[in-house]
Design goal:
The complex is a heterodimer of chains A (about 250) and B (about 400).
Chain A: E1 5-16, E2 19-31, E3 36-40, H1 47-54, E4 62-67, E5 70-71, H2 77-87, E6 88-91, H3 103-112, H4 120-133, H5 149-161, E7 167-171, H6 179-194, E8 198-202, H7 206-209, E9 214-219, E10 222-228, H8 235-251
Parallel strand pairs in A: 3-8, 3-9, 6-7, 7-8
Antiparallel strand pairs in A: 1-2, 1-4, 4-5, 9-10
Helix pairs in contact in A: 3-4, 3-5, 4-5, 5-6, 6-8
Chain B: H1 2-16, H2 18-54, E1 60-65, E2 69-70, E3 73-74, H3 85-94, E4 98-113, E5 116-125, H4 129-132, E6 137-140, H5 145-150, E7 154-157, H6 159-166, E8 175-178, E9 181-189, E10 204-208, H7 209-217, E11 224-229, H8 235-249, E12 260-264, H9 265-308, H10 310-318, H11 323-360, H12 368-394, H13 398-403
Parallel strand pairs in B: 5-10, 7-9
Antiparallel strand pairs in B: 1-11, 1-12, 2-3, 4-5, 4-8, 4-11, 6-9, 7-10, 8-9
Helix pairs in contact in B: 1-11, 2-9, 2-11, 2-12, 3-8, 9-11, 9-12, 11-12
Classes of the chains: A alpha/beta (about 250), B alpha+beta (about 400).
Chain lengths: ~250, ~400
């Protein structure tokens, strides 16, 4: 089976004034279908830059990147936009939903920019299905301001899924959420992953990374370690444990 | 299909910021109202002038005594006294296509009736004059060729003069004294209003030209001759024949200047309409400035909107919007604002013109060309002033746009 992501000696150099910043200095990585990978590292380690390259928001200075069998390292801006539309679903730290726009319409957004036109009826049906996956069908008409953080992030996940991408990219998806909601969101990701969806997630929280299957640690623009997660956490039992802790706290006088 | 979606998105964004959209469009509305109302006034004035020129009569050629320049000396029309009654008769007799001829004399004089007196314009004319000028009487009858032959002391009075001398009394049959010569009033002219030059055409007393020559002015030559052609198509031919005939009669050697001036009514009309046209364009140009100010308002708001919605632009790009989609979206917003402003402005401008007509009694006229032009111009203002902000939006880097706070 073809790798979803195949990076070969990816480098990215920024020119800030006179100084050259080597953000990514030769990363090679392969991610197979069905994997759930956490990319970790301190700020300045190059993980955000790598994430932008993986998300086709940025082009590497050198190296080869093939996504789902397509070499995307030399595509034009508009071609990259089409790749993002068809092959990648984004989940951001700040949710990045359109304000004053219903959850349903937010989920429809990627389909509006799809190359082939869909009937508004089909758009709606697909968006409702995606909301169903994250169990938010009953909130379809709500605006982001009427939803909790966790619900907003679930709308964002539904939006990421709606075009059936090869890859879901999550950038600090739990960064703006409390610990309980974070676990819930990780539960959603684990559920999706168990259904065969490939997920790559950037995070700086080791606890959150333990919900994934593979952990890639970056430092100074290079891959420091790339190991499978051994002490893996699962959202169901973790939520139960949190519930008990919470119960104990309230019972204590 | 993507275009439809983009347009829908743009319209929705405008609906979301209703107050802002209305205020931005208001800039264009005011501009278009100004243009339409100003042009309406300008064209109304032009139409009025054209009507006044038409009131000079149909297919009229005026022949003035003396030329404009004679050996470098400018004399006023009629100053040289080169035209005679015989010239006028020769024209009537010999030139094909002439339907009316009226020899003319003019003089300002004090006229008196009873204990009233009034300074007015005395016209010596032939009986054809009323036909040539299309100037019917409301009462009485015009003088006849018999009156002309006998230099009878009869007069036709204008509305203003009648009002000044007789008030509301019927002037027919009354006596009016011009330089102590008593004239019997036999007719009252209908009102003709102001002339192209702004003088009151009704402030007049018309007597047979022979009476004016012999009894009032004591001259033997004419100031001018009014000639009417039977048809507009005959005008150039008649004008040419006139010139040849008069040169021959006045024995002017080839190569010498005419001692008379022939001027078609069209020349006068062209001059007057050219003036009012210039005024219309000037008013329109001044009003267009406010349209451009409205356009700058759109640009301003669109720039604010692009900054405010940087994150939205980032999201759209992240999920697959091309730079062109973003450009089109913001351009559509700007053009929608300006064209809706244009449509409302046209409606309000037409309304404003109607109000001006009713309130100040100024005629207004708005040609369709200007209505269409105002709409296209306001749409163009939207494209022109919306392009820079839209381009700015489309040039955003999605990574930076997504991080924008």
């Amino acid at each position: 089976m073809n790798a979803v992501i195949k990076l070969e000696d990816i480098r990215k150099t920024y020119q800030t004034g006179e100084v050259e910043v080597l953000a990514v200095r030769g990363v090679s990585l392969e991610i197979q279908p069905g994997e759930f990978v956490a990319i970790m590292g301190a700020s300045g380690s190059g993980k955000s830059t790598l994430m932008n390259i993986l998300g086709c928001l940025d082009r590497p200075t050198s190296g080869r990147y093939s996504l789902d069998g397509t070499d995307v390292s030399q595509l034009s801006t508009d071609e990259l936009a089409d790749i993002r539309n068809q092959k990648i679903g984004f989940v951001f730290q700040g949710f990045n939903l359109l304000s004053r726009t219903s959850a349903l319409e937010n989920v429809e957004l990627p389909m509006l920019y799809a190359r082939q036109h869909m009937h508004s009826h089909d758009l709606r049906q697909k968006a409702l299905n995606a909301l169903g996956i994250v169990s938010l069908t009953d909130r379809a008409g709500h605006h982001p301001s009427q939803l909790s953080g966790g619900q907003q992030q679930r709308v964002a996940i539904a939006r990421a899924l709606v075009n059936q991408p090869a890859l879901v990219l999550a950038d600090e998806p739990t960064g703006n959420l409390d610990s309980r909601t974070s676990i819930e969101i990780m539960g959603v990701f684990q559920q999706l992953n168990s259904n065969g969806i490939t997920i790559v997630m950037v995070t700086h929280e080791p606890d959150i990374a333990r919900f994934t299957k593979r952990s890639v640690v970056m430092s100074d623009g290079r891959v420091l370690s790339d190991i499978p997660v051994t002490d893996r956490l699962f959202a169901g039992p973790e939520l139960e444990r949190l519930q008990q802790l919470h119960g104990a706290a309230t019972r204590t006088p | 299909m993507r275009i439809l979606v983009t347009i829908k998105t743009a319209l929705r964004a405008l609906r979301r910021n209703k107050m802002r959209s209305v205020l931005t469009a208001l800039g264009i509305i005011i501009g278009v109202v100004a243009v339409i109302a100003m042009v309406g006034i300008g064209n109304g004035a032009k139409a009025q002038i054209e009507a006044q020129i038409a009131s000079l009569g149909q297919n009229v050629i005026l022949i003035f005594s003396g030329s404009i320049t004679r050996s470098g000396v400018h004399s006023g029309h009629g100053g040289a006294g080169t035209l005679t009654v015989e010239d006028a008769e020769a024209i009537r007799r010999e030139i094909v296509g002439v339907s009316g001829v009226s020899p003319e004399l003019r003089s300002a004089a004090q006229v008196a009736a009873g204990n009233q007196n009034w300074m007015t314009q005395i016209l010596g004319e032939g009986p054809d004059y009323f036909e040539i000028r299309q100037w019917p009487l409301v009462e009485g009858v015009p003088f006849t060729t018999l009156d002309v032959r006998g230099a009878n002391k009869v007069a036709i009075i204008g509305q203003t003069t009648a009002q000044q001398l007789f008030g509301d009394e019927n002037p027919i049959g009354q006596i009016v004294r011009v330089k102590n010569v008593p004239f019997v009033i036999v007719g009252l002219l209908s009102s003709k209003g102001l002339s192209v030059m702004g003088t009151d055409q009704d402030d007049v007393l018309i007597v047979p030209y022979t009476s004016a020559m012999k009894r009032i002015l004591g001259v033997t030559t004419l100031r001018s001759i009014n000639v009417q052609a039977a048809d507009a198509k005959l005008l150039p031919a008649v004008q040419q024949q006139l010139t040849e005939l008069l040169r021959q009669r006045h024995r002017i050697q080839p190569g010498r200047d005419d001692d008379f001036t022939v001027r078609g009514q069209q020349d006068i009309a062209n001059m007057a309409t050219a003036q009012s046209e210039t005024m219309t364009y000037l008013l329109g140009a001044v009003a267009s400035v406010s349209l451009i100010v409205g356009g700058i308002g759109i640009m301003n708001i669109m720039l604010v909107s692009v900054t405010e919605r940087t994150r939205e632009i980032g999201i759209r790009m992240a999920v697959g919007a091309h730079a062109g989609d973003i450009l089109l979206q913001f351009l559509t917003e700007a053009v929608t604002l300006s064209s809706i402003g244009g449509v409302i402005g046209i409606a309000a401008g037409v309304g404003a013109a109607k109000i001006i007509t009713l309130a100040f009694n100024w005629p207004t006229m708005i040609p369709v060309v200007w209505v269409v032009g105002a709409f296209l111009f306001s749409a163009a203002v939207g494209i022109f002033f919306g392009f820079y902000p839209a381009r700015k939006a489309s040039k955003l880097n999605p990574i930076d746009a997504l991080r924008y706070e």
